[in-house]
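This part of the workshop introduces the protein records we will be handling. A record pairs a protein's sequence with a compact description of its fold. Comparing a sequence with its tokens is the quickest way to learn the format. The record below serves as our worked example for the rest of this section:
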Amino acid sequence: MSVCSRRTLLRALGIGGASLVLPSAVRTRPASAGGATSPQRVIFFVTQHGPYDTSWRMAPNGASDDVAWERDITDVPQADWSPILAPLHRHRNRLLMLDGLSNGALLNSPLTQYHQSGRATLLTNSHFVWDDGGDATGGARSFDQILADSLATPGQQPFIYCGASQGPEGQIRPISFAGEGSPAGIESDPVALFEKLYPQRGMDPSAQLGARSIAQRQSVLDFVAPQLDAFASTLSGEDRLKLEQHGQLVRDLEQQLVPLECGEAPAMPRGDDLEQFFQLVALAVSCDATRVATIQTRQMTGDEFGHPGSDVHQDFAHIPHSPEMADYFAVRAEQFASFLDVLEAIPEGNGTLLDNTLVAWIPELGSGNHDAHGFEIVLAGNLDGAFDTGRYVYWPRDQANPSITPSDYNQNWGNPVGPPHGRLLVSIAQALGLELDQVNLGTVSGSNGIDVNLGGALDRLTARGG
């Protein structure tokens, strides 16, 4: 058996990714690890509704909402994390949390229902248009499709757009668009997505990852057993117990992962639809079958976030600072964390798949009361060092707002807003090597004489305090 280094051992166990903290082990902040030859990927995870900042925000003591601030989250104990974001603690070194961005494409929008217009503009950064049914829909090609146009290579799926198309709320409005008024086709059946990725398999739709396939896969813990024993002997008793418990979590995760054998079709992953989509997208990007993916969710039922019999939209979503909505988004955070677990468990180069992937969790709204201009977004991974992770970055609402239409839905009519989210899209594109200075809309103008520039890269993503 080959001998692995201490660093390799820590990475294999997920410790290098900060999923386990052992005070008696020497730890350093992970450096970019994938290497220049690894392909770069982007995955968008879009969820319904919007969180309230009181249950999301992680402001340092004494911080004011009126000034910009940032916080190093790598040494913040989980008990001090916000109720919503606490499930992401194990990935803190890989995270860049953004707070205070505005949906620039909606700054001067007419009266509309923000669930629809939010989804129509979030990835297009363009004015929406009305479809034949009188609903808001995308007014331009969406950012995921624009990235796929540049990143896809011959023989690949240019992009994957998957997730729920129906939920308790009925039909789910699209988030990804091929062009003006033209939603991209979504794959809402994990089995159908599997068959698109592996048309040669001819899989029985009822087939699942069976005991025989699991038994044939050697655990990473078995591979590093001698080194693990030696490493454990250097730890305190408390940390040895933590390591044993973490080892069991690694074994449990291995039982859920798709066998990553890119030369042949694997078995269909287990789990619910969202878990299967997570694993199929991870498989596709790890085998370079695609480099861009968008996963959208449905509205959860009350049973799924601890409030049986409730309707999240009617009962909780519009109540300011609702503790039930904190529960709702905490479940979404745990789902997002579980997806990052899968990506970080897949070795690539000298690091993991997450090192060369940017995963963006984007709620459709800034808050449950239809605020489109207070977005909280979580980025995970850093595209081999493109972004400075391990931070929470906040922008105040201090920029001009050209909105001129007072309405029940336009919560920020005439009030200052944060920087437009289109600049984040530009930053992502530039990190991928694309020469873009704007995504669709470059400027939003109002009859009040205010023009807002939506182009250029977003500040403070690449350097602490910069």
Observations:
- Confidence is low (pLDDT under 50) at residues 1-36, 203-218, 255-260, 406-410.
- The longest strand covers residues 41-47.
